[in-house]
Please model this.
Amino acid sequence: MSEFKPTEEQSLARTCAMDLQPGEIMTVNAYAGTGKTTTVKFIANSLPTLRTLYISFNRDMAEEAKRIFPTHVECRTTHSLAYKSFGARFRHKLGNTRPYAIARAFRISEHEASAAAEAVRRFLYSGDDAITNDHVEEATGERDNDVLRLAERLWLGMADPKNTELAIPHDGYLKLWVLSRPPCPFDLVLVDEAQDLNPVTLKLLLNWQTLGARLVFVGDTHQSIYGFRLAVDAMSQVSAIAAAKSSLTESWRFPQPVADCASKILSTLKGDNVRLQGRGKHQGTGKQTRCFISRRNGTLIKAALSELSPGSGVHFAGTTKEKGWSPFEPYRFQEILDTFHLMAGTRGRIVNPHIGRFATYEDLKKAAIGDEGDGDNKPESPRDPELSPLVSLVEFYGMDTPRVLKRLEDASVGPEDTHKHFSTGHRAKGKQWAHVTLLSGFLPLDDAAKMKELKSKMSAREWSEEINLIYVAVTRCQRDYIPYPEAQLFLQGNTPAITTAAEMLRSA
Model:
């Protein structure tokens, strides 16, 4: 094994970390493929006398970190830290409580139950100590004391180990643990993927800072893509109080042409004039995987079907060997199939109670896309973003839906058994492939007018994350990428397209 030779940027990051005093914060903005994990390990190895915690994004990352980090570093997720103190007492009722179950328990309408459940969800993710009308307003668009009281009752039921009618999600015992203000047994806390951190976790860390812990937040602010899960970009939030800041801009994943494209996305669309350096030297030996990356599941399913050929399989990113590499759960195939059964009148074959609660397919469709409205009137019912893709796919494939899903499941294999991989932009994060093909559905970068229209309909966070998804998708490749149809000019370096996008941003 060759000896690790740190770059100047990595050495600077280590020096900054070694100079941190108790209670100080540092940020490391690590752009795509720049050796983030290697740098964090480098920092940890340089501080062997400090009791160190490495907080990872998920359990798989924590297990991998345990394998490569020095023994004085404890590698955990925040949920695993909370489970011992609070989670274990709820092991018999862990899970998600659907609105229909809440409605049954409280004898209220599903509409009221949904509003209360969403208010509780927002409270659990927040750094707040109690449910307030602020959470209700975020959930429903208005302050409502009746919904607030329902949400308070719901949370009390969830947090009661004896109440088995109302399950508590994993985020519930995490919230209880953070509210207990646990002591910090660590001198140094290394926070990975800090660009997508739950506010409740950020509150825990800032509490630990006041107790003297050194905090190192590591991530890529331009890979912040989980706002829909109520995550926040902690990198930006702690920037003003950070005692030290460093950046990693040399990517070991991809060559300079890809680095140039990523730099162009960030400078033109986000105002970050970083100049990424592409040091990747992928030699093209062995099986050359190509991943098709889409913005949405429906587009991905259609692409996977078009790429199927006799004797060859496909792999969906995020599937596991334990589940036979089946895409049914992670890509919501079961819900698509259940939606089909509702449409076809075969209710007895529906598995998911969330779909089975609808009396008819028309009821589900109405919940998915809202009332049609008439004339200039806006629809009265909100469009359900979880149900609408199911309706779209079922109506596209019609009676062929079960055959289509079965065909894809039968063809799904492990990542080493095929060179054809498929992923959504969100599931592609943290992964890499030799070649990447981007599919339709991302922002139409070549159409300035359409971009301006879309931007006007999104919050600043939503707009930023849509751009971030393009950056994430492009930077998954080790050799080259094929741009999606709506951004061919921009992503292939056409100067007029770049100018048009820049003008659009200035005028928006």
DSSP finds 23 helices and 13 strands in the chain. Residues 372-382, 495-499 have pLDDT under 50 and may be disordered.
